[in-house]
Amino acid sequence: MALITRFQRDILPLLASEYFHSNNYKVIKCEGTSQEKGDDHFTSNTCFINLVIQFEENAPETHAIILKLPPEDEDFQTFMGTDVLYHNEVTMYTETIPAFLTFIRNRCEFSYNEYDLFPKCYFAKWENKKGAVVLQDMRSVGFRVCEERVILDYDHCIVLLKTLGRFHAISYGMKKLNSSFFHQMTKKFIETMITEKSFFEITLGRVVEYLERKKEIDEDTLQRFKNHIKEPLKLMMGLIKPKEPLAVLCHGDFCRNNVLFKYEDGKPCAVKFFDFQTVRYASPMTDISFMCFLNTTSEFRRKHWDEMLSVYHRSLVESLADILGCAVTGVEQEYTLEMIRNEFRNYAFYGFMIDDFFLPEMVAGPVEQINYDEMAHKTMKDLAEAYAKIGGDSATALVADMVKDMAEMGVF
Fold first, then answer.
1. Taking Cα atoms as reference points, which of 270, 279, 245, 260 lies closest to residue 89?
2. Rounded to an integer, what distance in angstroms lies between the CA atom of residue 227 and that of residue 412?
3. CA geometry: angle at 229 spanning 310 and 85, to 5°?
4. All domains in the chain, ordered by first residue
5. Are 271 and 117 in contact (CB under 8 A)?
């Protein structure tokens, strides 16, 4: 397996030196268990490796790891913006997460483990458009991806939003106690949002055409929706711009694809986050709205979404009180549930505009899914047109449900 050879030759010596602090080692076993370029993580090649390594005269150690490398095709790298994606992810694993965990360790001695939401990073480097990320394979300690590829049930949503509340609370705590350092840290990330005007015009066109044809909403609501997306790129650029006091360091691609669950008695009980290639400093609701419209059904949103925001808010304020060492009531007065609800209404269009094209891709069958290797030799307009067709009316109906739900929520 080519990636295994590359790992042993180029990466393992650096990993041994920088993580294990030893250049005197013997590889007992370095075996690839699988190699893939996944449907949901198409910007990287990944290899799952079982490594047994012995340092000096110590007993051999076994490490289950994931090797993550950019695709070799340079056109694909350029098309996907791999240089920026890996810069962000490496910065997150080598600087931000260690800073977060050091901050929490100093603030929350007894609850520290509740904020350790990330896989162990053995190695991460990106220089001159080359590098790799090596992480702990969390399957070895009982974590796994949710079996359902798109839709999450009530229990998964509850534990996911509770965990996100803890993650976002770290930002608020650092802003209060070490604001200068926190903001310097957030400035190291590079924005990854699509900036081609025609892309959003084309992708949003499918739901507009569908709603006009199907007449599932009244004319006044439809017109208000069309007015809201009249300048979609300007709208999106405004939605990703941080606004105080609620801006946090966001995961940036917060959905079922990029989280791992641990289960007890068949129910999810813990979560780990990964894939930080699109991390940004923005409204916390960019994370939540994206997950809301991608990973829940319209029926679920109408029945449970207010409760989901309450779950997130409760976790946020309790975690922040823990970090600050103060009473929850004081934090609740500063970060009220109504503020969170208003923030969701103000930023719901972020999740909608991404899921407008991403959800049809996720629900499409393998035959329909976009071939990104081929698309790398085309334009963003070509990609938008492919997204606008995939899944047909059945997929567009799911996007139309988002529009109806946003209208019901008072978003527009």
1. 279
2. 9
3. 70
4. 2-69 (no CATH), 92-119+149-409 (3.90.1200)
5. yes
Read off the pTM: 0.95
Tell me the two tokens of residue 324: 């600050």
User: How far apart (Å, rounded) are the C-alpha atoms in residues 356 and 128?
Assistant: 34
The two most distant CA atoms of the chain are separated, in Å, by: 76
194/154 Cα distance (integer angstroms): 32
**Do 260 and 275 meet the contact criterion of CB atoms below 8 Å apart?**
no
Q: Cβ atoms within 10 A of the Cβ of 392, count?
A: 12
Per-residue pLDDT reduced to its tens digit, 208-234 = 999 999 999 999 999 999 999 999 999
In the block, residue with structure tokens 């972020």: 350
HSE-up (13 A, CA, CB side) for residue 206 = 28
Structure tokens at 340: 């969170």
Phi-psi category of 189—alpha, beta or left, where left has phi over 0 and alpha has psi -120 to 50? beta
Q: How many residues does the chain have?
A: 412
Per cent of the chain over pLDDT 90 is 90
List Cβ neighbours of 195 (8 Å cut-off, separation of 6 or more).
233, 237
- Strands 61-69, 130-136: parallel, antiparallel or unpaired by DSSP? antiparallel
